[in-house]
Amino acid sequence: MDRAEPLLREYLILSRGGQGGVTASRILATAAVLEGKYAQAIPQFGAERRGAIVRSYLRISDEPIKRHSRVKQPVGVSVFSARILELMDLNSIAPTAKRVLVNSSKPVHLGDREVFYVDATSIALELNLVIAGWPVVNTAMAAAMAKVFEIASLDSILEAMKNFFHGKLLEANLEAARRAWDRVRKA
Amino acid sequence: MVRRVVLIGNHAVAEAVKMARVQVVAAYPITPQTIIVERIAEMVERGELNAKYIRVESEHSALAAVYGAAMGGARAFTATSSHGLLYMYEMLWWAAYSKAPIVMAVVTRTIGPPWNIHSDHHDILSVRDSGWIIAMAENVQEAFDLTLQAFRIGEDKRVLQPVMVGLDAFVLSHTAEPLELPEQSDVDAWLPPREPLPFVMEPGKPFAVGNVGPNEFTMELRWCVWRAMERAKRVIKEVDEEYRKIAGRSYGGLVERYRLEDAKYVVVAWGAWCGDMKEAVDILRSEGYPIGLLRIRFARPFPREELIEAASGAKAMLVMDRAVSMGMEGIFSMEVKSVVGGRVPVKNVVAGLGGVDVSYDEFVEIFRKFIDEYESGKYIDWTLPEWYMPWRGGSR
Amino acid sequence: MNGKFWKYVPQNLELEAEEDLRNFLRYLLAHPTPGSAGATGTWRTLKPVIHVDKCVKCGMCWLYCPENVITWRPGEYPSIDYTYCKGCGVCSSVCPRGAIEMVVEGE
User: Fold this and answer.
1) Quick check: pTM over 0.90?
2) Closest CB from B139, B276, B283 relative to A2
3) d(C-alpha B62, C-alpha B84), whole Å
4) Domains of chain C with CATH codes
5) Domain total in chain B
6) Among B96, B105, B248, B253, which residue's beta carbon has the most beta carbons within 10 A?
7) Where among B205, B228, B247 does a domain terminate?
8) Are A81 and C42 in contact (CB < 8 Å)?
9) Helix or strand (DSSP H, E) at B44
10) Which of the listed residues B215, B230, B247 is the one where a domain comes to its end?
11) pLDDT single digits (tens) C47-59
């Protein structure tokens, strides 16, 4: 199908309820808009349950985004917990995604896809970003996504985060984003 | 100076309510609307919005409370969805035929059974005869803009009717998009406080609203509202044009015309899925098909003149319905046919019920089939509505 | 019709009504089944582990489990179905002997 908007890029975020996949998507959308782009951050519609696998989506475009239908052909996938890869088959849910980012302490290989990894869980633990026993990795993953998928600069990500956090929590999250930006590596 | 922000549809509506300096809010939570009134409650709590927030035990009471507030002269807002809107049904009539200029956000959601929280337009279109002005947004920006415009339209002395602002469940209510917010000072100048009513409600001077009367009183009141709706068509266009002064943007009044110039094939629809339809129109235009979209912004008052104008140069029309009247056809299809009937053949496709996703590439297929059928003379078969259900497969 | 677009003109009223009734029951009625939300055990971060040396077979965990994933009969040790246990920890909280430990699930 010929795309009406060739400059439109769509992403899939796989996270667990409570990890902050939706917030990450919104931070990225805000950062892209700060840079003059257009964006949509779309949560999984319906009930979100702590621990369950949640899909959220992100659209980034150089032109206003008209469509509101679901993302079917993501060019990139961000996986907030490596264990999700054991439970879901990327070949069936995102066959078009050539580039994948995984929250993992060690390199991950996924066929002929280009894989990047960052240990966002360790970053969250280092900075005590833990809610109800859960390391909240959204800001680290948002920064890593911004770099890997070339969505926005680190400065824009940090600026966007000021809309979501305040005070000490903001400081810790800004640091998480900086560390993730520095530490993300190609597998 | 406008401010560019990224908000989900529900927060954009709450922001518009704040900028409109609403004085009374009463609401009962229901998915996917709840976030609107949650955000407003936070605004009131933080002192950003100087309003009375009334907690109630049902949607029926929510509308009764804002009805009372509006009759007392306050700027009043509520929000609901689906079953909540149906539960308000009786009070909708009281508010509209008392000419109480309330604004209500309706996050459109299908009606059970089966239990389902996703979007179609059965809720908002099933109340279309209740005397409310009924509008629907295409995107988050328009959800904000329409909410502000709704106060100006409803409170205009030439209109004085309540207004519903619809936005699709989840695809707008929970999706974050960039939007531009006007300056508060510009909004204040454009939307001044409500003018006083021609009567004063105060303790010690009792009177009744809507008391028993001769039958002719009822018919006279209906006539008043009928005339107000006809005037509202002009006021809606005027307000939309004037909105450009503070926001730099307007939409075209009761409808938005997308690539309708020289269009021989006209698609008619409303709501968030029109964005995907616009992409489909772009694709078919690039292949040389003279197709355009007439996007309905207001279902009441209905854009009669705009539809006749669009039909006059067209070969055929396609109405995409996300709500259907059982035993008849799509709701907009009935209405469009009643206006343009006899001028051009009209096809009706029912799709997207219960939140079923329909994307731009599917609209390309639906629109192409419509054009092919017209060109091969098969529009004789258009008397029956067609249901788009691609998951069923097989043939029948 | 190509399987995507559907129109209906009644032909055989009895046959088609039967077809509709079958479909109607399928889409309207929901029967309880194990794991209708999928293998909810994958949602777990903490896993309840029963230490049988401390367990007094009282059945409190069985009684309180909100997901009915604990099997127990009087006089027997309880057992947990980890395919569906979400790891909420209610069993661990109500155990009068502290015999149920919540341990971190391998991530």
Assistant:
1) yes
2) B283
3) 10
4) 40-104 (3.30.70.20)
5) 2
6) B105
7) B247
8) no
9) helix B34-45
10) B247
11) 999 999 999 999 9
